[in-house]
Amino acid sequence: MRGDRVGGRGADGGANLRVGVAGGKGWLRPLVQALSGGIAATLLLAPIYVLEGFGPGRAVAAAAVMAMPGALLVWGALRFCRSLHHADRPGSALAAAHAVAAITFALVWTAIIYLLVRLSSPAAARQFLTMWAPWQMLDGLLLYTATAGTAQTIWTRQRLAEQKLATTRAELHALRARLSPHFLFNSLNSMIQLAEEDPAATQMALLRLAELLRHVTRSGSDDPGEVAFEGELAFIRNYLALETLRLGDRLRIVEAIDPDTLDLSVPSFLLQPLVENAVQHGIAPQRSGGALHLSASLSGNRLVMEVRDDGAGCAAGAWQAGQGLGLDIVRRQLEVRFPGQSEMTVATAPGQGFSVRIALPATPSRAGL
Fold this sequence. Notes:
Elements: E1 2-9, H1 28-51, H2 56-86, H3 91-120, H4 122-197, H5 199-222, E2 226-228, H6 229-247, E3 251-257, E4 265-267, H7 272-283, E5 290-299, E6 302-309, H8 319-322, H9 324-337, E7 341-348, E8 354-361
Parallel strand pairs: 3-5
Antiparallel strand pairs: 1-7, 2-4, 5-6, 6-8, 7-8
Helix pairs in contact: 1-2, 2-3, 2-4, 3-4, 4-5, 4-6, 4-9, 5-6
């Protein structure tokens, strides 16, 4: 089989989409990060002062005088930039605010350094004021510009990610709406035929249909985002039980589910489009039907799921034109919810069936079934 990989693995930790520009909604964590950056800058600058003839202690002190105020001002600048992002202001007003902030940033940084130097040596302070203060002002302007540019980049990426998530959610709602009438029509027709032959089986089928519709309605209205894999698996089993009414022995289901995966978290409505594709495009068109293989297992700290059928398959890449809607929504769910941490691999070839393998972080579920 030939595989087409969608997405990828990486070190990107999947930041919360609603996290502020500075890396958190609170002030403590960004402040600690700023102080850590100041300490790192101090350690990097100290050897330079040693090379200029300063003693080790004096070199560290001089480096700290330069680096620590700048680090704290960067923390303040990030918070200021965040407040500007949340304010409803025209572009000209934002530009003016950043210009004033940049000048203020540079003046305050230069003034703090001057005062700290003056405490130890008034003569050195006078020399700093006449020789180095203009350069320090320039450094301050450049540092604020870099800080504001970084904040803007992060904020823009977060906004795009939120828009992408909103689009994906809307498409999921549309997919549910498309599924419900289509599936109801087939299931009810099958139940009408079954009612004359086996009333008890009809009652069980109605219970399964009720459970399935309850899951779809709850997912569509409350939008839980993520659910326990056990709940998603129960939904898929109900779906397949009702498809079996229509296809009978032509639909054979083979499960290999590791019990340790049942309480792990998965995106709601993740596997159903894959199962539907397998039934509709892989198994139902064949006169003899086929087998649907559904598996879930743990591989290290990753949950690995696979939906596979033994249908006719297709040429590599042809599935994107014919069956791409559900697969594309699944791919984008993974990209939005697990950026850089998930894999979706599609493998197919003529006469060799169709397989979709998904790997994502194994996280215990906090949602109900």
